[in-house]
From TrEMBL:
Gene label: Cd8a
Record protein name field: CD8A protein
Pfam families in alphabetical order: V-set (PF07686)
Broad class of the protein's primary localization: membrane
Domain of life: Eukaryota
Sequence ranges assigned to domain Ig-like in this UniProt record: 12-124
Originating species: Chionis minor
PROSITE patterns: IG_LIKE
Length: 185
């Protein structure tokens, strides 16, 4: 039985509207973190009894698990650890909070809160946390400065048919395919 449940993005099985989640910096005045800063993020869920995951998407688009916070505020960090040297995690009412103890370049990225309900993962919108881009006056012959950003990828990951010769050209889908022997993308 194929169950169609389309999100606003049109992707089957990715449901983001049933449980509304928001992620933001706890201090609303922050737009960019500073080096060494204690950075606090909070995730507000529409449902407070299932726990929440925090993940970070780095500049290359790779997702990194940070912590799972249970409904009774028990934190489990990467490697099944109860504590972390880099992060703190707590639950307060419907807020799941993540603290980056001392923000460094390895902490830059988009932060997401996830919730699992009835075997469906719900993602919050991402909260970008990047150092400000510094621009300096450059000679007119210099190349333009590039800003930190996440490359937009196809929002609907696909499972490709290995029997399809065109499948090898589907480069970039979920990071699984590379160029073929002729160098065609």
């Amino acid at each position: 039985v194929y169950h169609k449940d389309f999100s606003p993005t049109g992707c089957p099985g990715i449901r983001g509207q049933r449980y509304k989640m928001t992620v933001r910096f706890r201090n609303r005045e922050i737009t960019h973190p500073r080096m060494g800063q204690r950075l606090e993020l909070e995730c507000l869920t529409g449902k407070d009894d299932s726990g929440a995951f925090w993940v970070r998407q780095d500049k290359s688009g790779t997702l990194h698990f940070i912590v799972f916070i249970s409904s009774i505020s028990r934190a489990t960090f990467a490697g099944n650890e109860k504590t972390s040297t880099r992060f703190e995690a707590t639950k307060d009412s419907r807020f799941y909070r993540l603290v980056v103890k001392s923000f460094t370049p390895q902490d830059e990225g988009n932060y997401f809160c996830l919730m699992n309900s009835n075997q469906v993962l719900y993602f919050s919108p991402g909260q970008p946390a990047f150092f400000p881009v510094t621009t300096t006056a450059a000679p007119t012959t210099a190349a333009p400065t590039t800003q930190h950003s996440i490359t937009k990828k196809d929002p609907c990951p696909r499972t490709l048919d290995p029997g399809n010769p065109a499948a090898g050209r589907e480069r970039g889908r979920a990071g699984l395919w590379s160029t073929d022997s002729k160098g065609d993308p």
